[in-house]
Amino acid sequence: MERDGVERLLTEAGADSRRLRHALGLLCDGQWWSLPDVVRDTATSRRTIEALLRELVLEHDGDRFRVPLTDTPAYQHLIAVAPPPEDPVAHLLPHYRPALDRLTTLIAKAPRARHVLDHVSATPDTVLRRALLLGARFWLPGTRLLCVGDHDLTSLAVKLVHPETDVTVVDVDERILAYIDEQRLGVRTRWADLRLGLPASAKDHDLALTDPPYTPEGIGLFVARAVEGLKDGGRVLLAYGASERTPLLAFKVQQELSDLNLAYEAIYPDFNRYFGAEAIGSAADLYLLRPTTKTRPAVQSRLSRPTSTAIYTQGPQAVESTSGTPKGGPTSPASPTTPRAATPDRRATAARAHEDAGSPHAEAPGARTAGPSGQAAEADAQAANANEPAGVANAQAGRPDAPAARAATSAGRGGESDPLAGFEAELLVGEWPKALTQPRVKLSTWLAKPYAASPARVAVAVPAGLEAALPRLLLASRATHLRVVGPGLTPRLPAALSSVYTLTEAREGVLNVVRLPQPEGEVDTILRRILDNGHGKLANTWREALIALARAQGTTLTKNEARTLIREAADWSDDLTPLEAPLHRLTALRDAITTTVRALTGTAS
């Protein structure tokens, strides 16, 4: 009898059978359920729910199913009656219905999730509850919050509920930064690939929140950067979840946190819910972490050691992509009694392989969703920005300075495969073969501060997985000619840099970038001055250029007057450098400069 199989599952689960009993209660409540909804509502992995479904006789309505009403009495004594632990802020939700409605719309219209960046959309309810918990736990007016990655749009939820909070987002995804800025809620946006550093303008925050890639490497890096962005006495809120089947993975992640000497102030179980991530029950805990006096030295040690470019759970930058087939391998097909909604296809099989290998945050590539509608979330490569890390081939397991040029130099210096053939580099940026004798600098150092000398010809090695950094690597240079080498490079120059460089492809994976002559015209001269000073504060360079323009015209412009003109034209420009600015801001910069020049001179050329 099917009840015997259910009772066997519950007995085997023992004290942890509550989650199965909860699922059984849902299936016996008379409503129709889809597999994703059961997974998310119970915060139980897909595999565990599928095991329960195989023991039940179900009736179907399309992809939904339930226990027939005539059979439910047989299971009543097995159902968990008591509700799960109370959500700490659920009682506040009815007071914020307009905010929830707006967040639902914002999340539905947000850029599509990208599986190569481990994007899984949190539910609107989750994002709102994060904001409410922050307000219940901390005094937010005037508090500075740093969102370390924000595909979930938590920053917008915080500004909707607590508009007095000062919120900054750092993210590698240009689309997310542009979308957040489009909402005009007062969130500061900064571009950053955390493997290369945290923007200087993203420091000294009171709180940091992150929902990172769910690998030990990803957790360790994102939390370390979050701590780096805090002032003393700050807190880190971390979303992290693992399947009930993989406690060892959770242990490894917690070891990363322990290595950073962080104190656990609270863990809210299953606080976060997602559209997708069924391998971990579409749920994650919310950790509240407090740095100790030993944390900053540990963070500095963590960030100073070589960091792998492979920090994600899937895609070419996945940890597994560097180590062959996942250890667990694919699972066997479901039995014929599996309901249609639970029948595993290739995506489900791949999801199980990821789960077995300790990659809980994702199903198979393409199985993610970007919102309530459940649309496929695999990024459209044709719509991806040339500077984004989509479609990267053969990510390496090495550090960000991994030898991108190693294969190309296999024929030896001066051979046909040598990416530096015909190019006499005066400086090497990134990791190059040791046989080359030129001075060299790390990618992270190149972005962090101006190089002391002024080399005219610079060679830059960009390892697979860091292609999104190319515009910033170019802005960090003052060289007249650059040779850029990397396996995933695309021969397209972002529009924001078209006033500074021309770019041509020497051959696949080798780019020639040449600095343009200084332009004529007031507006283009100021724009070029700003972009040529990539490490300088954008507004400061702009201010001095306006003052110089006024002086050349025989008038006087004070610093305060110049600042006022700039803030009226670009209120986002304070306290960031061109290297930190999202590309959409740099693309719009010329129009903003035109506004200030016209206000100063009455004309703009």
How would you sum up this structure, described in words?
The protein has about 600 residues and is α/β, with parallel strands linked by helices. It is about 30% helix and about 15% strand. The protein has 19 helices and 15 strands. The strands form 3 sheets. A 7-stranded mixed beta sheet has the order 5-4-3-6-7-9-8, with helices on both faces. A 6-stranded mixed beta sheet has the order 11-10-12-13-15-14. α9 packs across α11. The protein is elongated, with a radius of gyration of 26 Å.
Largest sheet: 7 strands, mixed
Computed over alpha carbons, the radius of gyration is 26 Å
Content of β-strand? 5-15%
- Regarding quaternary structure, what we see is single chain
Q: Strand order across the biggest sheet?
A: 5-4-3-6-7-9-8
Total strand segments: 15
What count of helical segments does DSSP give? Answer: 19
Distance between the termini: 84 Å
Structural class: alpha/beta
Describe the global form.
elongated
How would you summarize the topology of this molecule?
Layout: H1 2-13, H2 18-27, H3 35-42, H4 46-53, E1 59-61, E2 64-66, H5 97-109, H6 124-137, E3 144-148, H7 154-161, E4 166-171, H8 174-182, E5 188-191, E6 205-210, H9 216-228, E7 230-240, H10 247-259, E8 262-273, E9 283-291, H11 295-304, H12 346-356, E10 427-429, E11 440-441, H13 443-448, E12 457-461, H14 470-475, E13 481-485, E14 501-507, E15 510-515, H15 522-531, H16 538-552, H17 559-569, H18 583-587, H19 589-601
